[in-house]
């Protein structure tokens, strides 16, 4: 992979490219820095890239070496230990997320079309490296964004629920206990479920305003 300049969204950006389509046994790797997951249990990786169609070659016999996909891997670790030798650049050392195929391929350089692909993975250790393996495609990786989804801060039924990272899988529901707002007490245990898409669901329990205070829209209690 080579770092160079590329045009994206009307701007010139630094991007990594690999284009060794006529050589056999291509095994080019690119790895992200170490990424600590913090409170997140599931990380999303969004990739923006371009890929050239394999028919664009002077020597038709070279097409048998050409690919129109690349592989995405991850490696979990408790600390940032990686260097040029470790982890070794072998597929069986990493965990494979998926083989990434382009939805749109370009033939002429002036008609390049951009692809966007997002994958997610459950992380159990303190942090992770993501790695990209090229085995013979002509690809430019324009951007990579690592993020996690949360259910936002919300106040309802006079209980405050703090921003909460979603669970480890798409079917996970994370139960969060609410804290009564000022001048309010628990009426029944307030809980909310955080869904994997970042939305709250199934509100149970509530708080109520203390005597001498009146509620406003379920969000605060003010003196009468």
Describe this structure in words.
The protein has 224 residues and is mainly beta. It has 2 domains: 2-147, Galactose-binding domain-like (Jelly Rolls); 150-219, Sandwich (Immunoglobulin-like). The chain is 0% helix and 53% strand. It is built from no helices and 20 strands. It has strands at 2-8, 11-19, 28-31, 35-36, 42-51, 69-77, 95-101, 115-122, 127-134, 138-147, 150-151, 154-156, 159-161, 164-165, 174-177, 179-180, 184-194, 200-209, 213-216, 220-223. Strands 1-2-10-5-8 form a 5-stranded antiparallel beta sheet, with no helix packed on it. Strands 3, 4, 6, 7 and 9 form a 5-stranded antiparallel beta sheet that branches. The chain has a 3-stranded antiparallel beta sheet with strand order 12-13-16, with no helix packed on it. The chain starts with a strand and ends with a strand. This is Eph LBD domain-containing protein. One of its GO terms (molecular function) is ATP binding. Residues 1-156 form the Eph LBD domain. Pfam families: Ephrin_CRD (PF25599), Ephrin_lbd (PF01404). It is a single-pass membrane protein.
Supply database-style keywords:
single chain; 224 residues; mainly beta; Jelly Rolls; Immunoglobulin-like; 2 domains; five-stranded antiparallel sheet; 20 strands; elongated; receptor; ATP binding; ATP-binding
């Amino acid at each position: 992979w080579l770092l160079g300049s590329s045009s994206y969204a009307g701007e010139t950006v630094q991007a990594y490219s690999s284009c060794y389509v006529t050589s056999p046994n291509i095994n080019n790797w690119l790895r992200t820095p170490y990424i600590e997951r913090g409170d997140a249990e599931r990380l999303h990786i969004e990739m923006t890239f371009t890929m050239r169609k394999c028919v664009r070659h002077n020597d038709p016999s070279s097409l048998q070496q050409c690919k129109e996909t690349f592989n995405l891997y991850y490696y979990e670790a408790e600390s940032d230990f990686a260097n040029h030798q470790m982890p070794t650049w072998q597929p069986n050392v990493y965990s494979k997320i998926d083989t990434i195929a382009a939805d749109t391929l370009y033939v002429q350089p002036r008609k390049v079309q951009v692809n966007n692909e997002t994958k997610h993975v459950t992380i159990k250790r303190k942090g992770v490296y993501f790695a990209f393996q090229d085995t013979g495609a002509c690809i430019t990786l324009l951007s990579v964004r690592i993020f996690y989804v949360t259910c936002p801060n919300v106040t309802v039924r006079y209980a405050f629920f703090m921003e909460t990272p979603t669970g480890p899988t798409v079917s996970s529901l994370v139960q969060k206990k609410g804290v009564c707002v000022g001048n309010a007490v628990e009426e029944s245990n307030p809980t909310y479920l955080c869904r994997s898409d970042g939305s709250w669901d199934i509100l149970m329990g509530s708080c109520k305003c203390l005597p001498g205070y009146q509620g406003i829209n379920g969000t605060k209690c003010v003196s009468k």
